[in-house]
Amino acid sequence: MWGLLLVLCLTGCKKFLEEKSQDEVRPGSVAELQQLLMGEAYTAGTYSSFHAFLDLMTDDMVSNFNPDKAAEHSYKMYEGPYTWNRGLFEMMEAADVSEDIDTYARYYSCIKGCNVVLEMIDGVKGDESERENVRGQALALRGFYYFMLTNLFAQPYNTPGIDRSKALGVELILNSVVKDEFPKRSTLQAAWDQVESDLTKALPIVEKYGTTNTKFRVTPAFMHTLLSRFYLYQEKWDLAAKHASLGLALNPSLVKLSNIAFPPWYEQPAAGVYSYTSAEVIWLGYASYMEYYYIGENRAYGAVPFCVSPDLRSKYEYTPSNKNNRGDLRMRYYFGWNMADYDWTIFVPLAGWKAPKGYQGPVKGMRVAELYLNRAEANIMQYLKNGDEQLRVSALRDLNTLRESRYDTRNTAYQPVDKTGDELLQFCRDERRRELCFEDHRWFDLRRYGMPEIRHVFQGSVNQAPAEHVLTKGDKHYVLPIPRNALLKNPALEQNP
Questions:
Q1: Is 19 left (phi over 0), alpha (psi -120 to 50) or beta?
Q2: What SS3 class is residue 78?
Q3: Are the C-beta atoms of residues 81 and 152 closer than 8 Å to each other?
Q4: Cα–Cα distance, 181 to 193 (Å, whole number)
């Protein structure tokens, strides 16, 4: 009897000691897993940002000094990323940056959601086609998030002389099982291999079962856009062009800006390239219009603390005074504008804003324009290597198709460009900058272009002298530091230099 009682007590004790969330709801159907995926892996429902600071690290933004005390908060919020400070995450946290800037943890939280779905997908009830649709989405999203993490926290894939089998990648957490040991960072090659594995597994599944998914979910066009970007970063030009072409076969649409009424200076246009109804949107992904809200908000009359750089503004052939032909309409339609003097005379583009007036959805994701640019660049790189004239003509066709949709053609026909050699490559890169600015492309493009030098002048208060901060060519600061919070939670993580 005593032996039986002891067994019963030990059994009860074991069950009592098992960790179990009191509000845990275990999905029992494919439909419930889809809802879990929407809540834990997709972020469009909350418009959550992953890195509401990334453009401040590029040459697309500039800081202007305003001595008024009201502007000091803006300077404190963004001094870290703007000056490439290694404590940028902690500086932004201390300054109470409004948007979530816990980049590292947020990406891994979404990956965790993908892992849970993938582990449970074969054990729940549901239609087989729905099951495979959810599986494909989870694989694709995990691949996307690891792609972004690797390009933020590891060296560029094409870094000269790099040994990818030894260079640090990121933590590869592929299941939700809690282990005793802390995970270490993978190699850079392992990280890229994992992304490719997830995406190539997801592709045939999504192509077969995800054709009716909405723009808030992974679709075949999403897959080809991401794969085109993935291979572009790896300089596998033929594969980048191939997937761009497959994506364009699904949707070649571009919004024609000249068909949209020119807006008043203090408003956004009535329609835009990024919205629920835009024909060229592939994926309504993440981030909100509030991302860079405070870069110019806390200021008095005078200079805007942060705004679009003169260098970027100079890239557009735009003449607002010529009402018959304003030229490149992106300069007006792609930015949030504000008054620098409150006197209706000086208007300053603060940051990117490609959505129409009144739109409240996510503002970053994927658009058809990227496919034209990816294919153009891939073909140019192959043309420069082998001299194939057809590739040059194809690239120019893509660039001119895109540009014609962006210029004022109400009264004047668009004039196609015709360039050759390295001049064509530079033109393509400038076009990419004009079109995709403030959509989380520029920082990654600068990394794969060889990490060129960038100079930022910063002054945050009347007591601080203006200082020039230089990100030198190939600078180690082109790789973000692992946030201190992540290092404290995982002692096995190795910090970036």
A1: beta
A2: helix
A3: no
A4: 23
What is the enclosing helix (H) or strand (E) of 63?
Answer: strand 61-63
The three-state secondary structure class of 495 is: coil
Residue 495 to residues 154, 185, 488: CA-CA distances in angstroms? 10, 10, 11
| The two structure tokens encoding residue 22 | 């009191």
Rounded to whole angstroms, how far apart are CA atoms 423 and 426? Answer: 5
What tens digit of pLDDT does each residue of 231-272 get?
999 999 999 999 999 999 999 999 999 999 999 877 899 999
Q: Print burial letters for 164-199: b (CB count within 10 Å at least 16), e (below 16).
A: beebbbbbbbeeeeeeeeeeebbbbbbbbebbbebb
- Give CA–CA dist 245/379, Å, rounded: 11
d(CA 291, CA 53): 8
Residue 108, both tokens: 């891994």
Q: Identify the sign of the CA torsion 347, 471, 482, 187.
A: positive
Helix (H/G/I), strand (E/B), else coil: 179: coil
Sign of the Cα torsion 207, 210, 214, 217 reads negative
Structure tokens at 208: 């077969």
CA dist 212 and 220 (Å) reads: 10
pLDDT tens track for 190-235: 999 999 999 999 999 999 999 999 999 999 999 999 999 999 999 9
Instruction: Specify the amino acid at residue 318.
Output: Y
**Strand (E) positions, 317-413?**
335-339, 347-352, 364-367
| Alpha carbon 61 to its chain's center | 17
Cα–chain-centroid distance for residue 220? 19
Backbone angles phi, psi at 94, to 5 degrees: -65, -30
| pLDDT at position 40 over 80 | yes
User: Which value, to the nearest 10 degrees, does the dihedral of the CA atoms of residues 237, 242, 248, 250 take?
Assistant: -150
What distance in Å separates the CA atoms of residue 493 and residue 170, rounded to the nearest whole number?
9
Structure tokens at 274: 């990024």
- Please check whether residue 336 is in contact with residue 318, taking contact to mean a CB–CB distance below 8 angstroms: no
Query: 406: which residues sit within 8 A by CB, 6+ positions away?
Result: 257, 328, 329, 330, 435
Give the global pTM: 0.93
Please give the Cα distance from 309 to 254 (Å, whole number): 26
Alpha helices in 95-187 (DSSP H): 103-120, 128-153
Specify the pLDDT at position 11: 41
Please tell me whether residue 306 adopts helix, strand or coil conformation: strand
Q: What is the number of alpha carbons within 13 Å of residue 382 lying toward its C-beta?
A: 22
Identity of the amino acid at 255: V
